Amino acid sequence: MCVPLRTVWQPPSRTGKAARGQVSLPQSPKQQSSLRAPICVPRSDTARSQPSARSVPTNSRPPTSSSRMHWPRWTCTMLKRSQVDAWNFEAVREWIRRTSSSRQDLMEHADSTRNYFRDVEWQGSAYSAAYDRVAQDHDQIRKLSGEVEELEQIAFQHISDVEAHLRVVQGRVADAQALGMVVDDAWKVMDYENVDPDTRKAHQDLINAAFWSFEDSVSRAAQRIAEQAVEIRSAGDLLGSSLDVADADSQAARFGSEDGKALADAVAKGDQAAVDRILAQMPQPILSQYEMDALANGTGIDTLPASTQDYYRSFFQQAGKEGILGLNEQLLAKERAGDPLAAAQRTNLANSILAISNEKVSSPNGPNGSYQNLPADLRGMISGRSEDFIGAYTGPPELAENFRDLSAFGELLGQSHPGIEPGKELGVELGRQAADMADYLDDVDKNFNGNLPTGFDEGDRETIESGAASLLDIATRNDEVNYSLLTGNDMPEVPAVGEEYKPSRFDPNEFRNTIFHHEWSDDGAAASNLLEWVADDSGKPGEEGLRANQVLSQLPDYFAPTELTEDGQRIPKSDGDSSVFESNVQAFNANPKLADALAHVMGTNIPSYESPLHDESTVKPDPDAPSGQRAVLETTDANRLLFLASQSEAGRLLLETSRQEYEADLIARALADERGDPARILETQGNNLAQLDGRITNAITNALTYQNEQKLAEHNNAQQETYENRQKAGEIVKSLTLDNMEIPGKGGPGMIGNAVFDVIKDQGYEAAMNKWNPEPTTETMPYPDPEKITYDTGNSIRQQIVDSLFQQGQLPEYGFDRSGNRVDFVDEEGRPVDIRNVTSTSEEALNEMLRERGLIDFVNRYAAQHTTEILAGLAQEEDDLERFLTGKATTK
């Protein structure tokens, strides 16, 4: 997702205070700019400039607020190719030249004042005092001028750098276009028909690499200009005071504190104009593209400007929770009204919160970020729990408002640059808060039939649900946070007791149960991040790989724990009338994204469970593993995880695709054997491929059977409920009609005895009821045919080998059957034949070709082992899955 970044600097005007030392610098000319990522470029505002005061000042002070300094406004939207190509760099250079001219005017004013006092015929102590003051002011103005001159140099240097990087990108695009390829507005090579895939990908990679460097150069330009703007603001503010302008670089914290307090006051009063002025003074962007990408990759950065870090730390402390959320609310309203500048400002606000509180972010030789850098009332909201609102002075209305604030905060953080990680402590607290919100909704469902208590508004449930998902999504960007939340290991220190919240003990079991069992409206997308990182990190070296493999080995304990029966059998751990494993199967069906993520984990870690010889799930030393250790999974543990991963369509596809790729890679390596003996490698390294195929096939097939059983049970239950409902209705009708019917006539030929009439009445009624509402016949489950699966597998493994032979140039174009008839192994389109379509005589020729290459024994052994595995693990009757899920049978 592309997220616009920020805007930049506006004139340093201070509310209710003369803007001392502000010079009339011309504003940038009108220029469109649109960006793909969080980058800042001159915004398309109508050019505004104000004439410099050229008259000789009557005192030593330069022009005041009547001629305020105008910096170019920068905005960040999507870097589209069409708009980037239209950028006018010469216009920016013209702005720099005009800024330089205005700076020189400033120095002329200062020089004139000093020279005037130097040349006057005035002597004595009063003259000396006046001249000393003029000289001091002249020196301060000279230092201010030096700050402006540094801005000119920074702007010129970075604009040239941006232009050079753009030329490289445009050159890459031109290279692709010269070959007839089309490059769209998002820098994507679109020609799929006239250019082969490898050529298209090669040019796309070149464009991507060049664009990334260009993108980073733009964000660095905006960042350095914004940083220097803070210096000029500080220098102008100090001018005329008792402080030295040279101390400007130490004033950022004071500015942040003043702006934060002013923001809190403006939000409380609803003063939008004041909010806009404060936004214009905030340094933006806080992070360069390189820094944002580094944080998204979990890498620490120590390049954040010290002044920026000081400003935002003080700003947040003074703005407080209400100021931050109020600012976000006003920006969100503008964004929804179509203001791209507001969207950019919200992104910078979110980035700033994440950067200032991240322990891996610092300035050169400066302190690291910290959760404590956020204001206490904001931390109180994040780390507080719903039970804190049960008491004499708080209740549902206050809790409802707290949940709304949390949801708004989560939505704000979601506007940050994609992937920027929270710090460890903030991430853990966000994850815990998400679990608390989900748990509250689950309690409402369990105890109040899904109805929120009085004090909540309509729509609050959806707000709480989305807020919990947003907080969890941000928290799980950080893999260290994921590890701690899942295992309870390496947790940060518990936040100190505050007025708004009390720290509580963290229980990873409760956390996992809440997060994975809650039925998420996003299908478990945010929750699935708690598993996805294992797939990404398990193949990494060092601490990252060790953590991921540790969690992988513990997944059976999380999702399919076992216990021993009296006779020593290991069965799924019970959970009331069911088992923990079955409860998780139901949870994975309710949240299919969890199955997707687990399939990703299992698909990328096949070596951990390929062998059926592991007697327990643990972590063992492995010199071939990047981290030096690899998780191994006991066979039944792995099979249950595969079953869980197969509860979604995407999960099933991912598992089978991963297995086939793993198998194809091994076969390809065997066919490329230097000795020309592929059977040797297949016998030693491929001995478990057939069982692996069978186990994954069983998991996928049994998962489909389980889901069909659930649907069939629902269908049968619905039919039975309909039948019983109609029966009840019939009984009511009967009581109102037949049971109250008067017997016609008394005595004589028309008399019907009461006893006889009752029999006729009941028998006639029952017959009518059976005709009108026959008792439903329970439908039974058709189970998969193992013979069909085995047949398909035989074709599949032969197809795999034929395809590999073809890819390595070892597949002959044809062979001969027993009758000497030619059998083509390559079809008319030049591709390997589809094994499913070969005739029995053609199959003979194919098998002979495999025999000549020493592969037929592997194929036959594969089919036999696969059949054994299928027959051992495939659910073929009602109790099979019940035993697999709970360790117990219900019908036999």
UniProtKB/TrEMBL annotation:
<protein>
    <recommendedName>
        <fullName>TPR repeat domain-containing protein</fullName>
    </recommendedName>
</protein>
<feature type="compositionally biased region" description="Low complexity">
    <location>
        <begin position="54"/>
        <end position="68"/>
    </location>
</feature>
<feature type="compositionally biased region" description="Low complexity">
    <location>
        <begin position="22"/>
        <end position="35"/>
    </location>
</feature>
<feature type="domain" description="TPR repeat">
    <location>
        <begin position="287"/>
        <end position="533"/>
    </location>
</feature>
<dbReference type="InterPro" id="IPR057037">
    <property type="entry name" value="TPR_rep_actino"/>
</dbReference>
<feature type="compositionally biased region" description="Basic and acidic residues">
    <location>
        <begin position="612"/>
        <end position="623"/>
    </location>
</feature>
<feature type="region of interest" description="Disordered">
    <location>
        <begin position="610"/>
        <end position="629"/>
    </location>
</feature>
<feature type="region of interest" description="Disordered">
    <location>
        <begin position="1"/>
        <end position="70"/>
    </location>
</feature>
<dbReference type="Pfam" id="PF23275">
    <property type="entry name" value="TPR_23"/>
</dbReference>
